[in-house]
Inverse folding.
């Protein structure tokens, strides 16, 4: 009976590791890929010689800035 048992393996880090559990072929679990580490790609290259405002100047003409209306606060303006 023991000669039909297999070692159970599962992901631990970047490699498969023996869990030191002997199981029958019917009870053997498949290795879980969600236990593998996430491989993140490299950071993008930084912009060479960056200058502030460069992107804003490349967007074309901007709409004019509207100034707020002037509020009359004296009584003479209201009563005429």
């Amino acid at each position: 009976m023991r000669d039909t048992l297999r070692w159970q393996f599962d992901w631990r880090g970047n490699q498969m590791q023996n869990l030191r559990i002997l199981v029958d072929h019917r009870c053997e679990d498949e290795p879980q890929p969600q236990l593998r580490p996430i491989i993140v790609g490299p950071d993008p290259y930084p912009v060479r010689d960056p200058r502030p405002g460069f992107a804003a100047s490349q967007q074309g003409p901007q709409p004019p800035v509207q100034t707020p209306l002037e509020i009359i606060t004296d009584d003479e303006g209201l009563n005429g």
Q: What stands out?
A: The chain is about 10% helix and 20% strand. Residues 1-36 form one domain. The chain has a mean pLDDT of 81.
